[in-house]
Design a protein that fits this description.
Length: 133
Amino acid sequence: MPFEYKVVPAPTRGRKVRGLRNHADRFAAALSEAINVLAAEGWEYLRTDTLPSEERSGLTGKTTVFHNMLVFRRAAGTAVGQASDSAADEPAPTPPPKDPVAPTPPAVDASPHMPETAAKPQLPGATREVAAE
């Protein structure tokens, strides 16, 4: 059976959870959450690896940094919610609409001859002077 693999960085910090006081428990909660999120997508946790990575340091220097990576796998060609039954391949029927008659929107007066005062809103406290002809 062929597998496909997914590698993600392990969390580097714990997360605050009510009732967890020490760093080890908080870190375990963050790690559990990361694993459970991918498990919900159909990925099976396989292992954690520490792998070296050569990174730039300054203009010309290089340094080796180690990263903790979580390795997951799943059977090739599977996705979330896939079932082996042929009945699962059929789309679910859509429910009928609750109200078959849509309400009509209120009528809007779109008169091109609007009064000038309605076209230019005034700020509160501002006065508007109109020159007399």
